[in-house]
Write a structure and sequence with these properties.
This is Asparagine synthetase domain-containing protein. It contains 20 helices and 18 strands. By secondary structure, the protein is an alpha+beta fold. A hairpin with a 2-residue loop joins β11 and β12. About 1% of the residues have low confidence.
Length: 599
């Protein structure tokens, strides 16, 4: 993991006291043990660029800070081709990154198309501040160590568990938008933004379809080509679904050595299908069976306060403790890959949630995304949410709107925050997050991508050996459309007929009986812990929630909306000062009982 901080003075040089403050507060903002942090600095006229990492050496390219053509460049994330560092901050470069650059009198930072490697910015009367960690930027803008929260901005954290805006929990700190560039020259800041690509109409001929899928395939192949020379195989977590199948086909087509692992029992469709994929592609496949334990009517879980502290420390108050964040392990350069963000190739998760794709239904999806659980919130919080939704509701193309909302917020805010946990362990290649791949995907018609014809064609193009391997879960959408009755046909805006070879029957998801989760069925003991924290801090939450509605939420012995309770708990602990600060100690585990132990 890399952390960057850029400072640009408005009128004079940066004082040693400010630089010393940056060196002292990095331990709060960098969620790794202090003894593994190492840093580099560059200082010019009125400008400083500081960088830190927990990478054990300088083997990863490009280095933390490099000098090219009279300026210094830093890279947070990775490039498909590290030699392209000299082209930064060009946002058409391949990779998953944000760029940092400086020279005498000039400081800049830029985001890629999905801003999954974020840039945060703020200013004071004396300084412009940009950084890759929001808390670090905030602390550098404060005269003391007190944190000043933007409580109204936290309303979307309570609703959804992540930010649906460019706001942060910290007053005066904002996230830079996708494909944007912030530059400070001689104390004056400018921000430029490149709009997301507008999708072309769906191709109507087989030749044009092949050409469009071919461009996407080339962008994907470029992301994994450098992995051929790593000296060890990539480990791919493979399932029976769509997204990891694309990656298996991609690595196969690029001739990148890889092996696969699947978690589950031999009888589960994930294992059955993953084994078939590995056999067809001639790669090693390992099945990791779940531990066979005696049935239990209760489990012991970590106290929520410890879980919230680690989530706030890692995700800076921009991801709910409802989510399970990858815990810290020493940094490793071993190549790993998973299907994270594969929804980008399928028009985004918000579109995939829809069964009715009519205009009014899609409009309701946009509204609900921003204004969920309105009864719980104050009038001011609801108006703030409606104001955030307004420009998105004004857009005419609903499928494109939800597609772009996914990129801006579900990837650019939720994943950008949550993936900080895994980045502490290494910098895995994520083809679906690659700048060129996202650009190529967004250029394709949303309804065509949503039909899944694009990814099915892509898989056959990369690995025709997988033609007869079934899919786990639901059948491909373009097949569902041909099987729909005329009354249901309106749900599918893509053509019902296709010349693609018919895929084999799918394997429905097996219900294993292991669906119970202590997070979603918290039981009375855990509910009580959540309740006491939230109700005990209603004064801090009062600007955004109605106290009586919060009390009603927790009125039953087991809370009715566990995710919402966790979001409230996370924001409550943030506002009452859990972090920054020392990790809570001597917290007892909580016993959570199964709702029906005999089931």
């Amino acid at each position: 993991m890399r952390v960057y901080l850029g400072l640009a003075a408005k009128r004079q040089d940066i004082s040693p006291a400010i630089l010393n403050r940056a060196r002292s507060v990095i331990e709060w903002a960098f969620p790794v043990p202090p003894d593994v942090i190492r840093g580099r600095e560059w200082h010019g006229r009125g400008v400083s660029l500081l960088a830190w990492t927990n990478e054990p050496d300088d083997a990863r390219q490009p280095p933390l800070i490099t000098e090219h053509g009279g300026r210094v460049i830093g890279l947070n994330g990775h490039l498909a081709d590290p030699s392209e560092v000299t082209a930064l901050p060009d946002d058409s470069v391949g990779g998953c990154f944000s760029a940092w650059f400086a020279r005498d009198g000039e400081l800049g930072a830029s985001t890629a198309i999905n801003r999954v490697c974020p840039v945060f910015h703020a200013e004071t009367p004396e300084l412009h501040i940009v950084g890759s960690r929001a808390l670090l930027v905030h602390l550098m803008g404060r005269p003391d160590e007190r944190v000043d929260f933007d409580v109204l901005a936290l309303q979307s954290m309570v609703r959804q568990g992540f930010f649906l805006s460019d706001e942060t929990p910290y007053k005066g700190v904002s996230a830079l938008r996708p494909s944007s560039r912030l530059v400070v020259r001689d104390g004056v800041r400018t921000v430029t933004e490149t709009p997301l690509p507008q999708a072309a109409p769906a191709p109507t001929s087989a030749r044009h379809k092949r050409a469009a899928v071919g461009e996407l395939a080339e962008a994907l192949l470029a992301t994994v080509a450098p992995l051929r020379d790593l000296g060890e195989p990539v480990n791919l977590a493979l399932t029976g679904g769509r997204d990891t199948r694309i990656l298996a086909a991609l690595l196969h087509a690029a001739r990148v050595p890889f092996r696969t692992t699947t978690n589950g029992l031999d009888t589960h469709p994930d294992v059955i299908i993953a084994r078939m994929i590995a056999e067809r592609l001639g790669v090693e496949h390992t099945v990791i069976a779940p531990p066979q334990t005696a049935a239990k009517d209760a489990v012991l879980v970590e106290h929520p306060l410890g879980r919230a502290w680690e989530t706030l420390r890692t995700c800076e108050g921009m991801t709910s403790a409802y989510e399970t964040i990858v815990s810290y392990l020493p940094y490793s350069g071993k190549p790993t890959m998973s299907g994270q963000s594969g929804e980008t190739l399928r028009a985004g998760s918000l579109n995939l949630l829809q069964t009715d794709l009519g205009d009014q239904a899609l409009r309701r999806r946009i509204e609900t995304t921003f204004t969920k659980d309105a009864k719980l919130f104050t009038a001011e919080a609801n108006e703030h949410a409606r104001e955030l939704a307004r420009p998105w509701l004004a857009r005419e193309n609903r499928l494109e709107t939800l597609d772009h909302l996914y990129i801006w917020y579900k990837v650019g805010r939720w994943q950008a925050s949550a993936r900080a946990g895994s980045l502490r362990r290494g910098d895995p290649v994520r083809p679906f997050l690659d700048n060129r791949v996202v650009r190529a995907a967004l250029s394709l018609d949303q309804s065509w991508r949503l039909s899944e014809e694009v990814i099915y064609t892509l898989i056959l193009r990369l690995a025709p050996e997988l033609r007869d391997v079934p899919i786990e879960g639901k059948q491909w959408r373009f097949v569902q459309s041909t099987e729909s009755t005329p009354a249901k046909r309106r749900r599918f805006p893509w053509p019902a007929r296709t010349r693609l070879p018919g895929p084999p029957p799918h394997l429905p998801t097996t219900k294993t009986g292991g669906g119970w989760s202590w997070r979603t069925s918290p039981g009375p003991a855990l509910t009580d812990v959540l309740r006491r924290q939230v109700l005990g801090s209603l004064d801090a939450l009062a600007p955004i929630v109605e106290p009586d509605e919060v009390r009603a939420l927790f009125a039953d012995p087991v809370v009715r909306k566990p995710a919402l309770a966790w979001h409230l708990y996370t924001v409550s602990t943030l506002l009452t000062g859990l972090y920054p600060g020392k990790a809570p100690e001597d917290l007892p585990p909580i016993t959570v009982s199964r709702p029906d132990p005999g089931r």
